Amino acid sequence: RPADVGEEVTLCGWVQYLRQDLFVIMRDFSGLAQILIPQDEVRLQVAVTFTISAIVNDSILISVEILNVCRKLPFEIKDFVKKSESLRMQYRYLDLRSSQMQYNLRLRSQLVMKMREYLCNVHGFVDVETPTLFKRTPGGAKEFVVPSREPGRFYSLPQSPQQFKQLLMVAGIDRYFQLARCYRDEGSKPDRQPEFTQVDIEMSFVDQAGIRGLIEGLVQYSWPVEKDPVSTPFPCITYEKAMKDYGVDKPDTRFAMKLMDISKTFHNTEIEFLKDALNQPGGCIQAICIPDGAVSTADGALKSPLNRLMPASAKQQLLQMAQARPGDLLLISAGTQECRPLLGKLRLQCAELLEGSGVAVRDPSAFHFLWVVDFPLFLPKEEDPDQLESAHHPFTAPLPEDAHLLYSLPHKVRGQHYDLVLNGCEIGGGSIRIHKASDQQHVLETILKEDPSLLSHLLEALDSGAPPHGGIALGLDRFLSIIVGAPSIRDVIAFPKSFRGHDLMSRAPDFVSEDELKSYHIAVNWPAGDEGNQEK
Amino acid sequence: RPADVGEEVTLCGWVQYLRQDLFVIMRDFSGLAQILIPQDEVRLQVAVTFTISAIVNDSILISVEILNVCRKLPFEIKDFVKKSESLRMQYRYLDLRSSQMQYNLRLRSQLVMKMREYLCNVHGFVDVETPTLFKRTPGGAKEFVVPSREPGRFYSLPQSPQQFKQLLMVAGIDRYFQLARCYRDEGSKPDRQPEFTQVDIEMSFVDQAGIRGLIEGLVQYSWPVEKDPVSTPFPCITYEKAMKDYGVDKPDTRFAMKLMDISKTFHNTEIEFLKDALNQPGGCIQAICIPDGAVSTADGALKSPLNRLMPASAKQQLLQMAQARPGDLLLISAGTQECRPLLGKLRLQCAELLEGSGVAVRDPSAFHFLWVVDFPLFLPKEEDPDQLESAHHPFTAPLPEDAHLLYSLPHKVRGQHYDLVLNGCEIGGGSIRIHKASDQQHVLETILKEDPSLLSHLLEALDSGAPPHGGIALGLDRFLSIIVGAPSIRDVIAFPKSFRGHDLMSRAPDFVSEDELKSYHIAVNWPAGDEGNQEK
């Protein structure tokens, strides 16, 4: 740098390449430096890549020290060299040298640091670490178990610090946050990781607006300076509106193509399957209009199997309602509950298809934040629709105006839950919690039919002067992957697991000897015929 | 506050107590507030403790809202009320309300924040999260195992991110840090926790002095403002000197009472057991002098069974060497290696005994930091003294001046390991690492007789242009417990486990049904006659 002129300095880094046997190009994350090698030092050509320390004086090379040599690498560290995902994972320590991965990991560190400054220094939050060796939560089917040295007793790796954050409110830590490691054993699911990180926040004496405002400030404060600034407050819509307009509870609001209810157009229809749909309770006919979605075949005429079954007036009405122009594509769905989610999915697929063929639908540099609120507190269980289960978790408080229904019509109760959505991905969720033990017991025991004794410590805690409280958890990995435009959360995690939950570099999980398992009083149940696979 | 005069404000907090049915004393972590209740509102006397929100105008109470009520608590939240450890743990959410625990947790958060600012903002370190579901490390007998859904395959919860931090150096993340959750399954050990937190640091192109300077700056920067400032650099002594002067590798330098070699005094002795001791290889006679340790019986005469066996000249010499005065206590130990550690332990016990009887030995407000360096790289294995094992871990580099001995006399090699000691407790340790694959392979395979294939990914990484690197890990829990003067690290952890590794609040670890274990292909081996204990 200019300030260093005349100074004797030592540069340490990696040799990126040799040029004409005369110049060494050295690399570290901050950039490149070119060093001229005097002619009597050309023996350097022996190495392809090695670590080097060069002592330079007034741009004159004094000495060169080769700090380490390098084998022939399985792939070159150049951005244009395409590597398979499994090769990248196997040699993650090389893959991380790419400029994109360096940027991702360094941005992650900076963004997290800004979040901490905002929470801890600006807003007085207390960073509290909570245990990861915990007790199995009721219904915690996705929790990894960890055998202890006591026969039959297991710890559990929790999916979130939910219980601890609420207990901290009872404990008078009125503003808690933690970058919490969480665990979820979901087998193989696309772009999920068995361990992930959430920005975990809880506050006492707060309402929904308080949490929303805090998070908007947090995002704004920690937002990368090189991106367009984020404006606040974020728009906020109800769950009902989201389902009505987008057919999904996490709408991508970077583009329109909203759902339209076109039932009216068909209320006298003779078309059998549409009539059937409308006659069902809750039946409706929905449509989305994809601008220029059929531009290749556009001649202004309506092209559809329905064409000949619809009277001209209905067609006119339909086109008017949909504001469809020649070349547009109208997609129609008829039915009950599944009707909107189906079109919601088609809406996203159409956007992708259009973008794939070069039509600009979504601005890739745009970041659309959105709050979704007023979710139902309970949903019918899939396997037994007469039973209710929590839409999110059993600790969410009802909306004050619905609270009286908790004891009479629980399925009508909306919860004080809020989701934060970014570009159509849920990046966070939280709620105002139930802070009265009697309400919590009613929800657990009477509505959800859970054994409340499993949560007796939490019920006792609520009964010990628990303040009103609420919080949120942001999925850090997902949030970052959207900011950097990464196709997978694996690109913002230093050492991620593969799709199947494997660490391809170290080959974890791995076999453990029977002897080592003895101290945990467990044995492996080998599936029939599989015992031969055992390596030890 | 003065600035709020004339404002309408809402106070939220807990009722600490009622005074004369007229005043409510409200509490939160920041202090107390007294609120006068108008005479027509005295119905408040019903509650002992409840959460309250009071709207006050110009110090006139406008309204009171009772936000929650409170059961009769198992103990009062008053600092002078003594609680048993198990009661504190069972109702941790109440215990944390004490002013001491509030102070400890809030100080922890602030100190950690300052550490992050220093590392991330001042020194450009990158905060990288590393996995906790990993592969079992060779000899990792203290690692918890986590069954996966693949039969016989287990993850392991690592004791430290050692491999990852080194891989990050190879990956070009030249300055890494992390507040890392670590796991160690040691069964029941006093004041250990199955999960704990370390400040984990690694740097490329660094030497011992570089790491030491960094850590001294880190401690200074993050040191609580209310304590006397820490002066740097910290004193530094060799392992050999520490053993010679204090009989321990983590000396408490807040007081003297150093060990003295008094072998000379006895080199012509007729006392049989002393003669035997001196005749052994490495035999010596050591002493410590406890000032005023025998003041109650002081008359200037030497009181000892050895008295009549020693010539007057030897006695004279002994007293002179020990600089003993009337009333002092001299403790003598004769033997070989065990001789110094034994006196080292007695030295600490004497300090405790003296302090117990009111003698000021150590200043309770003093913080003595100390570096201990030049440890042996290998030690003879306890079970087979012809074999060597790593004194710390197999990745520590030899001292440059001893490096040539690695291939000839490995037991003579000193390592580039450094321990940070505070008031006689090891609070951190680290080393400059081996960065050449051939040296690392030699250590693993030839010296330690380990199977190098278990670490093949690390060897390959070192062979891929690994830079010289080194680092350190500080035990955050221990460090904090010394700063706040807590008797146990449990007092600086929000939700610690008991001595036996139990969470007394939630009763973890707990039984898990056979069915739930099936997806992990494991079954419990019940010890004979123990199956009846199974709760499910």
UniProtKB/TrEMBL annotation, chains A, B:
Belongs to the class-II aminoacyl-tRNA synthetase family. Type 1 subfamily. GO terms for biological process: aspartyl-tRNA aminoacylation. Keywords: Aminoacyl-tRNA synthetase, ATP-binding, Ligase, Nucleotide-binding, Protein biosynthesis. The gene is DARS2. This is Aminoacyl-transfer RNA synthetases class-II family profile domain-containing protein. It comes from Oncorhynchus tshawytscha (Chinook salmon). PROSITE patterns: AA_TRNA_LIGASE_II (PS50862). Pfam families: tRNA-synt_2. One of its GO terms (cellular component) is mitochondrion. The keyword Protein biosynthesis applies. Residues 105-509 form the Aminoacyl-transfer RNA synthetases class-II family profile domain. GO terms for molecular function: aspartate-tRNA ligase activity; ATP binding.
